[in-house]
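OP here, attaching both records as promised.
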Amino acid sequence: MKNYIIIEKDVKATKCLRTIVDSFDEIKFLGSFKNLEEALILILKNTPDIVFLDIDDTIDNLPEFLLDINQHSKNLPVFIGLSSSEEYAYKAYRYDFFDYLLKPLTELAVSRSVLKYIKRKPSETCETICLKSNKDYQYLNIDDILFLKADNNTTDFHMRDGSVIGAYKTLKTFEDTLPQNFLRIHKSYIINSKFISRIHYGKAVCIIKNHSFKIPFTKTFIHNIDFINASLSNKAFITLN
């Protein structure tokens, strides 16, 4: 069973959100918090699957908060933004939020977001992805995928053995379905962070382990690069300047 928390100052909004989400048997409530500091303690001790986060009062401290989670938590939760302003929607997606809900919250909007998560979030035990084309079914081991590259309305999977496998789906489709170690770093690339051996900020490229691939990244997705860098640095035995 999945679980969730709410970070929201407005008691009425918290109650409304919980009433709707609790109607889904697949998701369990863990707690609600009025500020990032209180929520961070629980997130680091017992990472929830979903964090409903009010953006209006937290936007200034959000980058540091997300970076802290990435550095100290083994698994990253999915974030769903809450706001009274449409202006924050763009910022929420820039921080790679799974979804965004506009206040006042409606049962339809919240239900759609929860169902989107239930439908698209891969199981922790999932080891393969199936690519279907007409009557052709191809099964790829997720741990063998180095990166994905967009090619118009199709996507190329670059595999560890050097093969390239095409799929008749857009890159966005896989961005929403692959595990959390697959991160969008460019409009044309999703990378498996497990295979990154070097991040060169000056040249704006990521180097893949045991391969000559240099995957470019852009400022639009720099927050994902920062997350990857923080995560890899945290796992390193020692960091030398």
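Record two, same layout:
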Amino acid sequence: MHLPLGFTLHILEETSSTNDVCLTLADAGAPNGTVVFTHHQTAGRGRQGREWYSRPGSSLTFSLLLRPNAEELDLLSRFSLLGCSALVDVLAKHYQLPGLIKWPNDVIVHGKKICGVLMEALWQGQTPQAVILGMGVNIAKDAYPPDVDLRYPATSIEAEAGILPQPMVLLEQLLAALEQTRKSLSTDDFIRAKNAQLAFRGEWVTLEENTDAPRKVRLLEIDQDGGLWVEEENGTHAKVYAGELSDSVS
């Protein structure tokens, strides 16, 4: 494979978590663009500590180390959107698939989850020294066990496009897209472009926020700080920073 300039690849046959490996490398001084890829992740995790299921060879599982520049230091919430948006671009360009960003950190195709993104940071005091962008993309039809009770319906590139890409080819495509998309990360245009890729925009959805009871809201747009503006049933607007969205409305 031919990685874009500025990326360094570490390939592991098996590991518990590529994010954990990448965090260790970051703490040891690894440079921006360090990539940790594994054929099999045994203890991957999603947002809020949820388990990420991975079958050997059926998905693209990797983590990318990014060193925020001065303009990006206060924009960490945008990095998850960066990963999601890059995959949406790759799906459209290379696989003719209509991916959308399911706020805050998933990509869906035809209403089913095809990718999850986990962003973590390495801090020195109050200053982020590194951002770790972990991504898991379902490639093959057997990427997700059918007997597992998933929080959201899942799909894969093979199931949607009839194409089974090689993980390394997809990784190369994604890194190129990430590099290109990051150029606008600190601009207002970045959020405007992400809103154009936002799933359920203008629709009524179910929002689960922390331990509160699920409620019906209308999804409006992503704010410049990464928060999500929604309309409550009483017509007021609120901004949320974490939660789980579902298109099922009771």
